[in-house]
UniProtKB/TrEMBL annotation:
Source lineage: Bacteria, Bacillati, Actinomycetota, Actinomycetes, Micromonosporales
Protein name (record): DOD-type homing endonuclease domain-containing protein
Domain of life: Bacteria
């Protein structure tokens, strides 16, 4: 992560100068030490060290580029790490006789056609955190961004969709990453099921997997300590979103025997929240025995479920 204003130690400055002298790119050095390219460039200029000319790689770096590509890294990611362009990396790989298959090859355009548990989950997740965009003359795009700490979840989504599209770092400063695919069928299906409509398909509304996906995208679960002098803790659940989505969620909970919740305004959107026993029951309803979930929220849900069982 790039940290604005971070001060380098004298030892780090010496290491940076040595790396630049040996041919490392400004981009790669900045990522390694968590500072901006401008800071690295200024340090080199003050010490009379010329930055590596863009687009040039040493023999060792060319070999490393090929090794990383064969290991599964994307052209764009390799290019960013070595401070060159993606076309130059593509050319190098092709000159080595390595076949480059389309990143969208294998993409399951029918991935959202069924209402299987995994399908409902990913639809719910994209309803919450995803964006479907249409541009004249272009194939519709589905994109989703997460914090870098949740990168593995985008890897899981990519695996579910069956493609090799890259997961890019969109903001080193804020530690975020993004994944996107292009497909008429996938985009149209999400819209058809209610992504931007005022009504969600009833088969999704009745699915706990769909709602787990929504909560993984726009919800929070936690166990917090009560104010002193109490030494006890309490569970909390909350999800935000558009009014009609949360109305459907409350109806789903009521159908499952969890009553008393209401949709309330929250800044420009709405929220549903609760604590203690009801929060634990929601965690159990959505996450108990679930095969697909955001890891850190599933871990918190497991602790909440454990509290519920201890209190039963």
């Amino acid at each position: 992560m790039t940290r604005v204003g971070r001060r380098l130690t004298p030892a780090e400055r010496e290491e940076i100068l040595a790396r630049a002298t040996s041919g490392d790119s400004i981009t790669a050095i900045g990522v390694r030490y968590g500072v901006t390219r401008q800071a690295i460039r200024g340090l080199l200029r003050r010490n009379g060290v010329p930055p590596r000319r863009a687009g040039t790689l040493t023999d060792a770096q060319r070999s490393e580029v090929v090794r990383r590509f064969l290991g599964g890294a994307s052209l764009s990611q390799i290019a960013a790490d070595f401070g060159v362009t993606a076309p130059s990396v593509r050319g190098l790989v092709l000159r080595r006789g390595i076949q480059i298959r389309s990143v969208s090859e294998g993409l399951r355009h029918d991935a959202f056609d069924s209402f299987e548990p995994d399908t409902c989950y990913w639809i719910g997740f994209l309803f919450a955190d995803g964006c479907v965009s249409y541009r004249p003359g272009h194939i519709p795009q589905i994109s989703v961004g997460l914090a870098e700490r949740d990168r593995d979840h985008l890897v899981a989504l990519r695996s579910y969709l069956g493609c090799d599209n890259s997961i890019s770092r969109t903001s080193p400063t804020h530690g975020s990453c993004q994944f996107s695919v292009r497909s008429h069928r996938l985009a149209d299906r999400l819209v058809e099921l209610g992504r931007y409509k005022q009504a969600i398909d009833e088969r999704l509304v009745a699915s706990r997997d769909f709602w787990r996906g929504v909560v993984d995208g726009d919800g929070s679960l936690g166990i917090y300590r009560r104010p002193a002098p109490s030494t006890r803790s309490f569970a909390q659940f909350r999800v935000v979103g558009r009014r009609h989505v949360l109305d459907a969620f409350v109806a789903f909970l009521e159908n499952e025997g969890i009553t008393g919740l209401s949709v309330r305004p929250h800044r420009s959107i709405f929220t549903v929240g609760t604590t203690c026993g009801p929060a634990e029951r929601i965690a159990a309803l959505l996450y108990a025995g679930a095969a697909t979930a955001l890891a850190r929220k599933a871990e918190t849900a497991a602790r909440m479920i454990g509290r519920q069982r201890e209190g039963a």
